[in-house]
Amino acid sequence: MKVEANRVEFKDIEGMRDIYRQEMNCQIIHDSIHGRPGWTHEYLITTAGVKVGYGSVAVAGPWQANPCVYEFFVLPQYRGRLFDFFLVFLAASCVTQIETQSNDLLLTVLLHAFTATVSSESILFYDKFTTAHSPPNAYFRKACEEDSHQIVQQDLNSEAKWLVAVDGVVAATGDILFHYNRPYGDIYVKVAESFRKRGLGTYLVQELKRVCYESGSVPAARCNPKNVASRQALQKAGFVPCGHILKGAISL
C-alpha cells in the first residue's frame, strides 16, 4: 500500500500527539517547540489514505542550518512498518539530523538505525527519593529585589526566583521551568564559585523539588554528561538518571 508523508498544520497531528505524550509518560524536553511559530514543520504519515503517524522537524533556533527530526510517532497497530514509514518521511522532509531522548523508544531505535555516530547532549533525571539535607547556616528562600546586587556580584542567574543564603550572603540561585509538558517542572541551579563543595547545590535542588510538589507539579532535571558536580548534586538530592538526550547526523 502506498505510503505518503505530507506537510500539515499542527491541528492535523494534535490527536496523535496526545497519544504520544500519554505513551511517553515523562518530561518531554522538546514539547514546547510545537507552540513556537515558525519553529517546526509537521508531517502526517498516511497509508492508503489512513492516518498512521506523524513526524516533527525543528527548523529554527539551533536547528536552523540543520533541520532535525525530534518526534516521530506511529500508532501501535502500524509499527510493523516503522522503517518503511520513516524512509518516506525522510524523503519528504529532507532532515539531516535526529535528536531524541532515549526514553522515546521509537525514535531512539531509528536514531541508531539511521545515524553513524550518536552523542549524548544531556542526562535526564526523574525524582525517586526524599532527602533532608541541611547545610550549616544555609537558608532557602525566594529571591527579592534587594538580592540583585549580590546575585550579579556572585555571577549567578538573575532571573532565578529562589536562592540559598549562607550567613546572609547569597550563595546559590535556582528555579523551576514549566515550558515543557506539564505537570513536569525542570529544576536548575547554580552555586557561586566560592560556595561550592559545601552541599549547597544539593540543598537547593532538594528544596526546589519540595516547592515543585507543593504547586502540584512533578520535578525533573537534566545536566551535561561531563558536569560531574551537577550530576552528583542531583543524585544526592534524590534524582535518579532515566535517559539521555541523544543526537546524530543521518547517514543513509
TrEMBL record:
InterPro entries: Acyl_CoA_acyltransferase, GNAT_dom. One of its GO terms (molecular function) is acyltransferase activity, transferring groups other than amino-acyl groups. CDD domains: NAT_SF. SUPFAM superfamilies: Acyl-CoA N-acyltransferases (Nat). Residues 109-252 form the N-acetyltransferase domain. This is GNAT family N-acetyltransferase. It comes from Telmatocola sphagniphila.
